[in-house]
Amino acid sequence: xxxxxxxxxxxxxxxxxxxxxxxxxxxxxxxxxxxxxxxxxxxxxxxxxxxxxxxxxxxxxxxxxxxxxxxxxxxxxxxxxxxxxxxxxxxxxxxxxxxxxxxxxxxxxxxxxxxxxxxxxxxxxxxxxxxxxxxxxxxxxxxxxxxxxxxxxxxxxx
Length: 158
Known about the structure:
two-stranded parallel ribbon; alpha+beta; about 30% helix
């Protein structure tokens, strides 16, 4: 049985104006000075380049819209039908795990609940600010997404 793994850098940026979170997960990042784990002789390391936008529905609506684009480099050709099947199975598994994690995050006594309460790096505070901003705007949905103007920023960063 093959061992398949990926190593990636994860960057998260919280937009506190419109209210959304952008995530970028990519395998193509500088590794100078970073000790990478050895890959077993039977293993394969795949490359990923994923971009996610997590957008609370906002207004008085509950729920979050996830827009995701993922590119995976397997290092070997895989027929389209098989790749589509794998991608669909993986997407369903990821979404199921996200829902389970969300449930655990609000379950007192779970390690995820404790992690949210401690908020060691301020990430959950950022998410609360995203939710607060989204609550002040009109609701969005999969069929009613905002335009590209929500991504505009000043040409000169402070």
